[in-house]
What does this fold into?
Amino acid sequence: MSFRGDDSSGEEGRSDLRKPFLHTGSWYKMGMGSRQSSLMDKLGSSASVIRDSSISVVLCTLIVALGPIQFGFTCGYSSPTQEGIVGDLKLSLSEFSIFGSLSNVGAMLGAIASGQMAEYIGRKGSLMIASIPNIIGWLAISFAKDSSFLYMGRLLEGFGVGVISYTVPVYIAEISPQNMRGGLGAVNQLSVTIGIMLAYLLGMFVNWRVLAVMGSLPCIMLIPGLFFIPESPRWLAKMGMMEDFESSLQVLRGFDADISIEVNEIKRAVASSSNRRTAMRFQELKQRKYWIPLMIGIGLLVLQQASGINGILFYASSIFKSAGISSSNIVTCGLGAIQVIVTVINTWLLDKAGRRIFLIISTSGMSATLILVAVSFFLEDIVAVDSQLHFVLSVLALVGLVAFVISFSLGLGAIPWIIMSEILPVNIKGLAGSVATLANWLTSWIVTMTATLLLNWSSGGTFALYAVLSVFTLVFVIIWVPETKGRTLEEIQRSFR
It folds into this structure.
């Protein structure tokens, strides 16, 4: 396969790179003699279908989106199963809080490993390995007889989630054309919300053990699906696998597409990298072109969790009960459905309006709604439980929580992961991405571990704290976050030099 204006400079000095020890198969390379003839002969009539770049990229995105569905299922699992698990296994409130937060501990371990895994074995290989502990973890929870198996399963599934949460947005960003990257990147968060909604919905009808088995299904389907999608072309280029890189990009852009300009731009970006090795040292992150995007990425991912979203979603049923809502499980399920609908709207509009404006709208709405919820809970504590005013305040708290989730889903839910995958240069993405993802999960663990304790202390005080942090997030976005809409990954990364 040849392309006009080929730039071979990207291959100089690549011999020092390690080849990946796991390079998963791809449907476009199976049984090939020469690469191009295999590409066309193997697909035959399928080649005429994948003429439009959007078809191949969307299919690849939908396959890897099975990972975030399992991620969301993990987040939502604690809410509908709290009473069942506590009753069957005789757990205390603190023991269940440990169970809820252990997925974040596992995710921190997964986040530490995710960057290096994604660098050495590829994006696909990382997702395949991450699926295995997820499946084992869910089965351990399903068959748990005491808290030890419950905790072990939660740690294992958390580890897989930590790897998935970094790898999927990076893979989607690296395969997407610039005019579709925002919308396709938002599919990651859309899948998370679908997973949360499924956990809420199915939890109303099935036992917590059966629900755990259902949680393993997305990863069981993901493993065979990974054999039918190409590896990230940018990762292949970085690893010096130029022929595979061009084949992958051609499949993703469509067989009729002229990819020569994009090929040369990616090659130049790889060749101009100041560090040709796959590994980088922490001290090298002090350079301006690295520390600014890293600070923005870490800041957004930390502040995303500091808003308290996971504490609210993990324990939504109990929060609604404390607000005086009797049908808390139904309301929680409705909350999950609303989150999905708003994220669909966000996915559709993100490439039209831009990332930054959605972040500003989202964090403004979150700040206002959290203040409303905090005030409602404060006033509930000083009025009679059987009064009309108490009922009105309960409704206001419910409306505020729903509006908060809508505001979060409109921007802060999806966009931090998209921006993190866009702004980090390819040669530091493994190390810097691990640091950013670890910071996200560490904050999530702190929020989840403290949520029930804070809510028992003061519901109004808890939401007031989250409101302050949301206001800080708004200020951070206005001052630091750039617009990345309509720019290639290479253009975005050059802007920080």
